[in-house]
Amino acid sequence: MFRLGIIGSDNSHAEAFSRLVNIEGDGPRIEDVRVTHIYGTDPARTQEVATSCQIPNIVTRSEDMLGNVDGVLCVWRHASKHKSETLPFIKAGLPAFVDKPFTNSVADARELIDTALTAKVGLTSFSTLRYCVPTVEWIASLKGAVETPVSGLSTGPAEIDSEYDGLIFYGIHAVELMLAAWGYGVTSVTATEHNKNVMAVCRFKTGPIVTLHFLYKAAYVFHLTMYGSKGYSTHAVDSSTSYYEGMKVIMETLRTGKWPLTPEQLLEPIQVMAATMKSLSEKREVQLSEV
């Protein structure tokens, strides 16, 4: 039985992931793993999650999990907490999943990655939306549908003034979906804002130009459209399979130590978001090499 620790009870993801392994008869379940410990800064909220998800141990310090768990899920809403909360476990040789956004700064992301590489432990971070079954199938169909990608858009909700570290908190979903569909290799970002809606034009070194639409107070939707040399294809993301499929990838990483995303792939979404914010601030095109 693989013992998991949850760091950060504030996020609904703490419940979503825990239910997949701890609760029987509640839909698809990941076997041979159990969330045994949880840490949070709001005692009432932490108790609520522990009770609803049958987590037997609440700790008053996250470090108290060391020696009692085999891996951790760091799921704070504030990405600014992710580095400091995850590093002690990585340094102790424990594998970790860090919820989206991986971090809220490029420097923090690099430190986490470098530390995990040195410790030779499994580490990953992602929006589970990229693993939704219909989305994976749509991405697989693109070669035949559009042939060579030329342009497109990735759309999702986001709040530039979110209390959870701003645009990156929800905007990271649209970024990761873009990179899952178009591949990696963004070279620059040019962003603009109007009435708290943000558009960010991303240039890829392979040729395509893709616009990120971060929507404020619009209908809740994650949507992708790709235009290519042969045709075009559009896709509305159905998130119903996201947690289960994502949790399968997480557990493969924690059990085997294999990284499903390379260090460069973990870093690029954070670079895109950093370049977006820098472009908004300085009103110019920003190279990813600058952030």
Determine and state the CATH class of the largest domain.
Alpha Beta
Strand arrangement, major sheet = 12-11-7-10-9-8-13
| Tally of separate helices | 8
Give average pLDDT, whole number. 97
Structural class: alpha/beta
- Work out the strand percent: 25-35%
How would a textbook summarize the main sheet? 7 strands, mixed
* CATH homology superfamily of the largest domain: NAD(P)-binding Rossmann-like Domain
How many angstroms separate the termini? 41 Å
* String of helices and strands: EHEHEEHEHEHEHEEEEEHHE
- Radius of gyration (CA) equals 19 Å
CATH topology of the largest domain: Rossmann fold
**CATH architectural name of the largest domain:** 3-Layer(aba) Sandwich
List low-confidence stretches.
Answer: none
Number of extended strands: 13
Helix content: 25-40%
What coarse outline follows from CA principal-axis ratios? globular
Q: Please tell me the total number of domains.
A: 2
Descriptive overview:
The structure is a single chain. By secondary structure, the chain is an alpha/beta fold. The protein has 2 domains: 2-128 and 243-260, NAD(P)-binding Rossmann-like Domain (Rossmann fold); 129-239 and 270-290, 2-Layer Sandwich (Dihydrodipicolinate Reductase, domain 2), CATH 3.30.360.10. It is built from 8 helices and 13 strands. It has helices spanning 12-22, 43-52, 82-91, 106-119, 133-146, 168-182, 242-256, 263-282; strands at residues 2-7, 33-39, 57-59, 71-74, 96-99, 123-126, 149-157, 186-194, 197-204, 209-215, 223-228, 232-236, 286-287. It has a 7-stranded mixed beta sheet with strand order 12-11-7-10-9-8-13, with helices on one face. The chain has a 6-stranded parallel beta sheet with strand order 3-2-1-4-5-6, with helices on both faces. Helix 1 links the parallel strand 1 and strand 2. Helix 4 (106-119) runs antiparallel to helix 8 (263-282) and helix 6 crosses helix 8 (263-282). It is globular and about 55 Å long. The mean pLDDT is 97.
